[in-house]
Amino acid sequence: MAKKIVVAIDGPAGAGKSTIARRLALKLGFLYIDTGAMYRAVALWALRAGVDLADIHRLEQLAHAADIRLSDGGRRVELNGEDVSAAIREPDMAQAASKVSAVAPVRRALVEKQRAMADTHSVVMEGRDIGSVVFPDAEVKIFLDASEEIRARRRLQDLAEKGYPAAVEEVAREIRERDQRDRGRAEAPLVQCPDAAYLDSSGLTIDQVEQAILKLIRDRTSNGKDFAR
Ligand code: C5P
Questions:
Q1: CA 205 – CA 19 distance, rounded (Å)
Q2: Atom of ligand 1 nearest to the CA of 10
Q3: In sequence order, which residues have a C-beta less than 8 Å from that of residue 112 and are 6 or more positions away?
Q4: pLDDT, tens digit (0-9, with 9 covering 90-100), for 189-212
Q5: Which of 23, 61, 90, 166 is deepest in the core (most CB within 10 A)?
Q6: pTM score, two decimals?
Q7: What are the pLDDT digits (tens) for 128-183?
Q8: 97: Cβ below 6 Å to ligand 1?
Q9: With a 6 A CB cut-off, is 16 part of the ligand 1 pocket?
Q10: Distance from Cα 128 to the centre of ligand 1, integer Å
């Protein structure tokens, strides 16, 4: 039977994980799983339901009950049957997701869902803890990074494209704050696994990043020929 492959991409905000993960999944015929979208969906539900982001028990209940579906190559995110693809990308949702994701029982609930999603398919999964916690045995692990300035500029452009203009200093501060929280939390902090390949995308085009990762996948999966899609 063809082997299922997990390509795990972790890294800080704005490193380019989503763009590259989506492209790779399309190219390889794998499922693309944006785990950040899942934390954002739980945060959105909590905010709409008026749940205090410090109320661990209610957050845990929501994370378990959330029916989150990712489709259309990662573009469509549904929460309990509603299309929340745009709502979870509103500027405040990044910080809210970062707060919700520091809650250990929320992480456990979502990690369970993430593992189930990869049960039947090869996947490209991106987030902060994919190589360290969700799939410590992933065939390919990448830690994608970029300079603070480049990451802030990418996020700025992202926001502008979605109709949310902002100042670069403000965006840089937001990213710094979020990364500090993500790196400093007790549960599944953002770290580079010792067996992950470090890739700094600052001076690279998206094609160069893609080529570098495809080479890694080939090297680590018997030339990439025998995996299930
Ligand atoms: O990747 P994205 O920026 O959409 O993630 C939003 C937030 O969700 C991150 O800042 C992080 O706090 C959290 N997250 C996480 N673990 C993941 C994916 C995202 O803690 N695997």
A1: 12
A2: 21
A3: none
A4: 999 999 999 999 999 999 999 999
A5: 23
A6: 0.95
A7: 999 999 999 999 999 999 999 999 999 999 899 989 889 999 999 999 999 999 99
A8: yes
A9: no
A10: 6
